[in-house]
Structures are given as C-alpha cells and as structure tokens.
Amino acid sequence: MADNVNESSSNSVFSSILGVLRNRYFVLGVIFCVFGATILYMTAALQFSGYQRTISASSEGVSRQYTVSAPRGDIIDANGIVLASSREVNTVMISNAYMENADLNAMCLELSYLFDQYNCTSESELDEYFGVEPFRFLKSEEDIRLWQTDHNLFDLDDCAQGVIVTFSDNYVKTDPQVFFLYLRQLFEVENSYNDDEAYRIIRIRFQIFKDNWSFQTGTPVEIATDVPDELVTLLNEQNYHFMGIITARMYRRTYTPSAQLSSHVVGYVGRISQESLATLANYGYSNDDLVGQSGVESQMERYLHGTSGISTYNTWTTQGQEGVFFPSDYGTDAQRGATVQLTIDTNLQRVGIEALKTYIEDAKNAEIIEQSGYKTANAGAFVVMNVNTGAVLAMGSYPNFDPNDFVLSMYGDENAEEQLEYYLGLGEYEDITAEDMPLWNRAIMSQYAPGSTFKMCTALAALEMGIISPSSTWYSCDSPIDIGGWTFRCLEFSNGGHGPLDLNGAMATSCNIYFMRLGVDTGIDNIDAMGRRLGLGEYTGIDLPGEIRGVRASRQTKIRLHEYEYDRTWFPADTAQSAIGQFDNCFTIMQLCRYTAGIATNRLVTPYVIDNVTSADGTVLYEGRTVSESLGISEPNIEAVRFAMRCVVTGTSYWPGTAQDIFSDFPVDVVCKTGTAETGYEEIRKEYSNGLFVCYAPAEDPEIAIALVVERGEWGSSTAIIARKLLASYFDVAPTRAEQMLDTIPITGDDLGSAEQTEPVI
After folding, report:
1. Domain ranges, ordered by start, for the chain
2. pLDDT digits 0-9 by tens, 651-691
3. Separation of alpha carbons 714 and 219, rounded Å
4. CATH number of 384-400+449-757, picked from 3.40.50.960, 3.40.710.10, 3.10.450.350, 3.40.50.720
5. Helix, strand or coil for residue 421?
6. Angle at CA 263, nearest 5°, toward 419 and 404?
7. Distance of alpha carbon 678 from alpha carbon 688, whole angstroms
8. How far is it, in rounded angstroms, from Cα 36 to Cα 82?
9. pLDDT for 274-332, tens place per residue?
10. Distance (Å, rounded) from C-alpha 238 to C-alpha 297?
C-alpha cells in the first residue's frame, strides 16, 4: 500500500516537473538566466584579466595618441595672390618603446646617419646652446647657467667660485668639454662610441630628455622634419626594427617671394612664449605651437591658427603590441585656419619697394661721386591709401626682411640663422641693425618731423580762424626776419626773401617765412586743434600691432617734454617753427597719408589692411571696412588749400612749384606737397635731412593718397619720384623721362629756417 502511495507521489512530482518544463515561460526564464550568467562571467573576466590591466596601463601611461597641428590659414593679397600658406611636410617622431638604454642609443645613432643620408632636418634644441668641433657654448655664460639650473631640465646646482667641477657631480658645467662628458654620462653613451657618434646620439636623446614627461606618458617626440617619402617608406616597412618610430604629416609655415615685399604687413611666426601660452592655453594652444609675432600674423592669430586634431598610433615595442590597438581612423581631424585677405596690391607694393631701393642706391652712388662727407639715404617708408575707404593699397618699409628666415632658422638652416642675427642685432650686427632696423615697420612705428608737408594744416587753421581768406592770402617773405628774438632766413633768397606772396605762391615755393608769420598770427592753440582734427599725433586705428601715436607741438607737449620751468615756456619762435612742421611735431607716415586723404575728401577715414577673413566653408568671419567721419572744414577754405597744393605741380605766374619737374608731364592731375625736415643731427652726425612727400590724385574725384619718407633723403622734392612711380603703376601710365630724374638737382624750397638766436621773447 505504501509502495503504491510512493509510486503515485513520484508520478505526480514527475508530471508536475514535466508540466513546468513544457511551459514556454519557464523556457524563456532559463534562457535569460543563462545569458545573465554569461554576462556576469565576462564582466568578472574583464575586471580581473590581463586585458583590463592593459587598458588601465594604457589610459594611465601610454595614451597612444598625439596632437596634430592644424594647417595655418592662408594670407592672400587683394588680388588673391598667396603671401603665406602652410606646406605639408613628413615628420619623424619617437615614442616610448621600453627599449634598453644601449639599444635606444644604437637606434638613435642609426637614425642620425639616415637623416644625413636623406638630407632631412634633424630636430634638436641642444643646438641652440651647445656645439662641437670644437666643443663650445653658443650663448652667454649667464644664459648657460640659467639653462643648466632649470628645474624642469638639468636641475644642476650653481656653485661658488673656486669649486672644482667634474662631469659626474651635480654642479653647473661652464667648461663645454666637461659638459659634453656630463651628457655622455647622463644618457649612458658607451665609451665604444667616438665623440662624433656620441654627439649624434646625444642630440636625439636630448629631444626626448627635454620632453621626457610627454615621452613617458605616450606622446611622441619630434626628432626630424622635411623627411623624404623614401625614408618614410623605409621606416614604416622596418617598423619592427625601428621600435617606437612614427612617421606623420605636419604643417610648416611658408612665405612666397611676394611676402617679402609686404613683410612688415604680413609679419612672421615664432615659437609661443610662456606669457602667450598662459593666455592662449584655454584655446587649445600648446608649448610647441607657432604663433604670429608681428603684422597680420599676430593681429589675426586666432583666425589663422585653426584647431589642432588628435591622431592615434600603434608601434612595435619590446613588450609586444603595448596597449589597446587603435584603428587609424580614430581621433579628430585638425581644422584649417581661416583665410585672411588683405587690401594690399602686391604689384603696387613691388613698385614702391623697388622705387625706394633705387632711390637709396642712387643716392649712395651720387655721394660716392660728390664725396661731401655726409651720410645719405639709407631707409624709408611709404603708404598708399584709398581716400574714400581707408583701404591701404600698399605699405612698405625698407630695409625689410624675409619671413621665411624665422621658420627656417628653427630647423637649422645656416643662412636663415645668419639673417636672424642681422634682424635681431646680435654679435657683429649690433651697430648695423641699430641703424637699419629691418624688423621695424617705419610706416606706423617711426615718427618723423613732417617738415613742409605740415603747412596745409597751418593754412587750414588760419583759414578757419579768418586770419586769411581764400581770396586774400598775402604775407611778405622778408629775409632775414626776427620772430620772438630768433632770426630766420629764407633758404632761396636769404638776403631779401620772396617778397609778397599769396597762399598759392607760398605753397608752390614752400616758403617758410610766409608760413611762420601766418602761424604766429594764427596761434599755436589753433594750429594744434587743427592738427588733432586732421588726425595728426593721434592713433589712426589701423588693424596692425605696434602703431605709435606721434607727437603734436603744443604748449602742453612742451611742458610734458621738458624738466625745467624756463624750457616749458612757450615762445613765439616755437609757434613759428611748429607752423612749418618742425619743433616738437613728429608724426607717422600713416598719419600723414590719412591727413592727406582728409584734405582730398574733407573726411577722416580709419585705415585698414585686412579686407576680410573667410573660413574653409566660405563663411565670412570678419570684414575690415570702416566708416569715415566728416572733418567739417569749410568747403571754400579746404578748396583753397587743395588749389594751393596743385600749384606745387603747376607753379604760379611768378613762381615754379617744387614738384613741377617731376609731375609737369604726368597725364593725371596730382595734388601734392614736398617736405624737407631737419632731424637735429645734420651737423652732429654729418647727415642729410629727411625727405618727405605727400599727394593725392586725381585732383577731381580723388582716388588715392600717398605719403612717403626717405631718411636722410636730403630733399622732399627729390623723393617725389617714388610717388610718381606709384601713381604711374596705379593709373597704368607708361614710364616717361621724368621717372628717370633721380639725379636731377631739386628745385630749392622747403626752407629749413636756419635761425640765429638773439633773445627769446615770451
């Protein structure tokens, strides 16, 4: 009975179990449980397996990626001619492959010979401080001490005088031979290598050493550039042999020959400073970035720089394929910088630079023949501007420079390094550079006494104050003449003077006595106010770095510039000299061009050299056009000054104009003024005065204005030939005899107002 009960119970349980197994929900539950168990097992495996440890090591130690610099945006001229661009170059980098020191040194030596064989540029910042054959330091002892005591580099201790320093101690090495031995020990370069081989190894090891933190954490270190494709192929094919070696494509700034013509406008790039990095780090900049150092390269840095990308890499190591394998399409692409288009016309720029150089060369040749003993023309600047918009069509400063030298010098180009020494005034070039100032944009960074080019300002002040009128402009040029205890003479007729002159005759002959007397009657306060109104001695607002403000002669300026009370007192003779563009008046050539354009239009523009900035997709990011402001000068008064300036070319019934020989046959009516300005060094240094010239054209419906200076150019009337060449290029006028007149004796004018002091009168 019991057996039957047990059998019945067993059958019941079996039937129940069989029922459950046949239930589809149970089956699904089992399947889910199996999957869940599998997932749990795999998670545990990942948590404790070597694969997980590899991921951790990779994220903490070897990131297997590097930053790809973005191609810097192009700079083009008004006609689309490329001035600056980015060239793609092959680069060799070395990453941490966990090699034994001896093996790493052997590979570095092999790479060094390969770089020579394939004419690559081997990278090493050691070359900036240390050289061999013979062993020598390349910087001052102070710089070497700072370099060796840098806590982030060698971290050596400076020692007291008299301490004997060896290569094996931790003191600064001022003996280059001892320092070389110290480097051999630092990088464990075996004695089996001779000095040349050791130095080859040390150069590459130093690159790793200075970026050791990056190297240890997986960021490759650049060791060579300009690598030909053949060597890239060899290194990639033998990547198991050259462990840790990575080849990549980077970008290098390059400038066309046209950029040298506009070098002060375009500017140049250089390694980022720590000060700049502190400001720009938040925008993705790094220690290795190149940034604009001057000109448009600096002004538009944030547009030109672009956005860096990230590239992954895989390499052979002594530990096998270290870390996670990164597919080559991982990472982010670098974004090219925007294109900056200038208002500069390269063709016009070339004409101006060549005309300026020719003038200087001819002046030097003439001085050789004449042997006067005076220093003659050596430098200058010019600006050509659209009078209606302020667009700068040409801006030249000479001597100039080649922006490529700043890039090439970073990669060991000896000629570029030599040029850099000249640009920066290092060593034997100190005195030459101090005079030439090739990096100095004379158009906006130098100030010059305007000389007779200021006389329009004096005339406008007198007309606006009613001292003279357009129809009544007579003053007598009597020479010599006493003004406030100072004796002034007419340069043309020192004993007698021109006699009675109207504004037209005075402007045509550039008579100083006329404008001195007119200025005294007008008053310095009114002349100063007109100068400010015309933008003289004020920032023009041009979109380039480094512009200076200049100085305008006034009572306040004299007080500011002089220490003693007597020297701060304003005298009538001060007004007389200020009225002809001397005394404290000092303006930039850009200001003189803007002022001339203002006379042409009765409006004041803001000059600009950047026309627009466009992104890679064609979006306009920036436009440089500006709005002009009315000068508000009475139209009859400003027209009277324009007509008088025109007489500088046409002359009057009685007097020739100081620019008549240059422009009398020019088919476009030119309105101009010559100027010869004393520097105060004529007798002290035995050098000529500066020659200046300003003009606009055509006389009716003006289009462009020009201002220029030739330092030690002697006569403003002579320098007018430079403006003629610029005007001929702009208006497409064929060359004529007048353009060859550099040796023509200038018309006497621009009286320097040599003075004999008797007694100052307040």
Report:
1. 2-48, 97-217, 384-400+449-757, 402-438
2. 999 999 999 999 999 999 999 999 999 888 888 889 999 99
3. 60
4. 3.40.710.10
5. helix
6. 45
7. 8
8. 64
9. 888 888 888 888 887 899 999 999 999 999 998 888 887 777 777 665 444 555 566 78
10. 40
